[in-house]
TrEMBL record:
GO terms for molecular function: phenylacetyl-CoA 1,2-epoxidase activity. Its EC number is 1.14.13.149. GO terms for cellular component: cytosol. PANTHER family: 1,2-PHENYLACETYL-COA EPOXIDASE, SUBUNIT A (PTHR30458:SF2), PHENYLACETIC ACID DEGRADATION PROTEIN PAA (PTHR30458). Keywords: Oxidoreductase. It comes from the Bacteria. It comes from Rhodopseudomonas palustris. GO terms for biological process: phenylacetate catabolic process. InterPro entries: Aromatic_CoA_ox/epox, Ferritin-like, Ferritin-like_SF, PaaA, PaaA_PaaC. Gene3D superfamilies: 1.20.1260.10. This is 1,2-phenylacetyl-CoA epoxidase subunit A. The keyword Cytoplasm does not apply.
Length: 327
């Protein structure tokens, strides 16, 4: 009896203490203070950040595959060097994003396993194929363009390690976007065949790029809490609209047509109104049924297996070195 009464009081104390901590945490967020790894944070904040940062890391790593496909077939040495550097940059982004996610308490092995087992998501966009050289231009211009639109606000995310990682990522993505646009410009100023190739790439990548920003606001599960915690600064639809408004004039400058008959400038709002996104296609891609989902996961699993000896060698070296330091 006595023990039970004592326990109840302890539980009450704990929940009062937690409520106090949660209120202080929210006050820090509201005051635009950065949350650092050793600070107290609600379990749900840790969980949603681990989810988002690790998905982001997986996207960077899987994102190397569609472009990596063209490294050996780049049309010139200059294009090859730039593409090689871009793909290496994506790898670097993945690595510092995994490092940022690790500061929240999950191990890299655990996170990578979640991706390889198909449990964790990565961006839908990387489940589409790169069929021509123009796709490399379209990815740089549109996919990196969309990524920048989404990631610039993440530089002000409440979680310090993620926000700081985003600063460098955004600088590199801006360079990627420029090189992609320059590929498109070269193709559009080239032969009729080259211009048609650029138009075909735009036709295939446009709608999947709009899907990158996530489900419409009414269907977004995490937006409310992520906005309250200043992980998200803009909603999915707001960022999508910003992307459309920035990209339509760029397409016009290239002399290309956007594959949307409903696209038109809304003189009242100043925005470009766009047609209906095929959310069934998005759901299918998320469910693993996009054109390349199976290939992408198979390629990552193969690379992981083939890299096992590197991880073992690094671990053996670290153990030996630690023993030496301890002696
Ligand atoms: N693909 O409640 P919601 C790049 C999921 S760029 C797959 O709105 P949230 C790169 C979402 O995870 C791409 N899944 O979620 C660029 C959630 O499922 P779970 C990576 C998606 O988190 C160039 C569910 O749908 N960028 O790496 O509030 C070259 C409901 O959505 C997608 C980032 O990851 C999608 N497109 O908002 C190479 C940026 N959209 O988790 C590489 C960081 C939504 O409950 N992430 N889902 O199972 C974010 O900003 C946010 O997570 C999102 C989604 C805006 C993407």
């Amino acid at each position: 009896m006595y023990t039970q009464a004592l326990n109840t009081t302890e539980a009450e104390d704990r929940s009062l203490e937690d409520a106090g901590r949660a209120a202080r945490f929210q006050a820090r967020i509201d005051a635009e203070e950065r949350i650092e790894p050793n600070d107290w944070m609600p379990a749900a904040y840790r969980k949603t950040l681990t989810r988002q940062i690790s998905q982001h890391a997986h996207s960077e790593i899987v994102g190397m595959l569609p472009e990596g496909n063209w490294i050996t077939r780049a049309p010139t040495l200059r294009r090859k060097a730039a593409l090689l550097a871009k793909v290496q940059d994506e790898c670097g982004h993945g690595l510092y994003l995994y490092a940022a996610a690790e500061t929240l308490g999950s191990s890299r092995e655990e996170l990578v396993d979640q991706m390889l087992s198909g449990k964790a998501k990565y961006s839908s966009i990387f489940n589409y194929p790169t069929l021509s050289w123009a796709d490399i231009g379209a990815i740089g211009w549109l996919v990196d363009g969309a990524a920048i639109m989404n990631q610039i606000p993440l530089c002000r995310c409440s979680y310090g390690p993620y926000a700081r990682a985003m600063i460098r990522v955004c600088k590199e993505e801006s360079f990627h976007q420029r090189q992609g646009y320059e590929i498109m410009l070269t193709l559009c100023r080239g032969s009729a065949e080259q211009k048609a190739m650029a138009q075909d790439a735009l036709n295939r990548w446009w709608w999947p790029c709009l899907m990158m920003f996530g489900p419409p606001d009414g269907d977004s599960q995490h937006s409310d809490t992520s906005t309250k915690w200043k992980i998200k600064r803009f909603s999915n639809d707001e960022l999508r609209q910003k992307f459309v408004d920035a990209t339509v004039p760029q397409a016009h400058y290239l002399g290309l047509t956007l594959p949307d008959p409903d696209l038109k400038k809304n003189e009242a709002t100043g925005h470009w109104d766009y047609g209906t996104i095929d959310w069934d296609e998005f759901k299918q891609v998320l469910a693993g049924n996009g054109p390349c989902n199976r290939d992408r996961l198979a390629a990552r699993r193969k690379a992981h297996e083939e890299g096992a000896w590197v991880r073992e060698a690094a671990a053996a070296y670290a153990e030996k070195r630690n023993k030496k330091l301890a002696a």
